[in-house]
Amino acid sequence: AQGGSRLALPPRNLLDMDTFSKSDPVVVLFVQVSGSSEWKEFGRTEVIDNTLNPDFVRKFVLDYYFEEKQNLRFDVFLGSHSALFGAQDFLGQAFVALGEVIGSQRGRLERPLTGVPGKRCGTILLLAEELSNCRDIVTMQLCANKLDKKDFFGKSDPFLVFYRSNEDGTFTICHKTEVVKNTLNPVWQPFTIPVRALCNGDYDRTVKIDVYDWDRDGSHDFIGEFATSYRELSRAQSQFTVYEVLNPRKKCKKKKYVNSGTVTLLSFSVESEFTFVDYIRGGTQLNFTVAIDFTASNGLPSQPTSLHYASPYQLSAYALALKAVGEIIQDYDSDKLFPAYGFGAKVPPDGKISHQFPLNNNVENPSCAGIEGVLESYLQSLRTVQLYGPTNFAPVINQVAGTAAQVTDGSQYHVLLIITDGVISDMLQTKEAIVTASSLPMSIIIVGVGPAEFEAMEELDGDEVRLSSRGRYAERDIVQFVPFRDYVDDSGNQVLSMARLAKDVLAEIPEQLLSYMKTRDIKPRRADPE
Predict the structure, then answer these.
(1) Which domains does the chain show, CATH number per domain?
(2) What is the pLDDT of residues 499-528, one digit of tens each?
(3) pLDDT, tens digit, for every residue of 345-363?
(4) Which residues form the C2 domain (predicted)?
(5) Which of 131, 337, 456, 485 keeps 20 to 30 A from 450, CA to CA?
(6) Quick check: 366 and 336 in contact, CB under 8 A?
């Protein structure tokens, strides 16, 4: 989910470094290059003279991607008009992920400034807001009267082509209507177009509309054209607007030429499309649940050939996938408590096979504290349960679906991460569980580890063909599957390859959340005023 995000920065109670007056602070924003430890300067605020509580006017505009960990560093310095700062100018720094700011209450996050040994450096308050002029959607309907006749044997077959003007004076096509056959007085169907596609958010920019007569061989005949703007079109909310269709060549040739017909704007309405950030800012919580495959086909955890084997130098594929996805999602979950289950193992004390045993061994409360807590419980379970089988997904999907069904007002959305080595044993039950879950506020991510063929997972993903079970079709596509092996980087840059994995499995979550909200007509709650 890409969106423009704007950060405002008022630090508080800064360290006073000026001998004769208060500090003159400036904030420098650095962005970490994805998959590396390198930081690049992104921008600076203005210098504010003589204050320890500056409120900066200059804002940073960043592209925001839900599916990426976007690490930011804010360094505060004593103001200087030179490009370089010395160590003596340093007032403190704060590290934060952009997702943490957006996922925090009302998009406000306060962080202590650190970095000056033995000194309290004050705090920095980060405010994030989404740039909003790009989310409006327009619906309009047009008709035409007395268009020029272009076809020899019949009337014309008219259609409209819309162009937005670019900064350099050129035009880019942004919409075509359908063709209305054999009429000089067509009425086109209403259509919908984003405002940014029509005029790039500039309400006074020219919108050019050409009228053509459709020909089967593609050599459509030009009837005429007219120009307008978003602002002019929007006036049609209160009145019909009639445009003359003009053909410049005919106008030059014929003295008595009036026009080539007229086009009337019958209706025009604007709606705001809600974004993923609107719901997060309105308080929607993402609840993250993990389910890990403990079937015997993974191999004995103590053996280096096992998919669960963790050497002293490297985490297992399971732990890597869990960490990559979990570390991004946790920014949007305020309590950072994650239910974590295993499936396909014989569980102590009686050795019964279980397909949803809590990794922390606490049936009453299977939640672990943070991603580190989940990893700890996962490693503990490997030492206490016996890997067995079969590979059943349905029980844990139904478990999360049961929780999701309890709160369907849009305040909670569930994401289930299943990590598995492969061939699924309860395909029919799993399809049934997913079709049922598709009407609930939840999404399912499946990461396949190991060398198995994962055709069944591709079917569950439902990107190509909508998943169905016993004649019932999934209401929404809620499953995203990726094979872990596609992300094992030959260069050995694990950080980069796990960032790519997280990006691919999480990229569909914002759209899936929005599709749930839309089908239920749930609007984001208004963030409380400041």
Answers:
(1) 2-130 (2.60.40.150), 136-272 (2.60.40.150), 286-357+391-401+418-520 (3.40.50)
(2) 888 888 898 899 899 999 999 999 998 755
(3) 999 999 999 999 999 999 9
(4) 105-243
(5) 337
(6) no
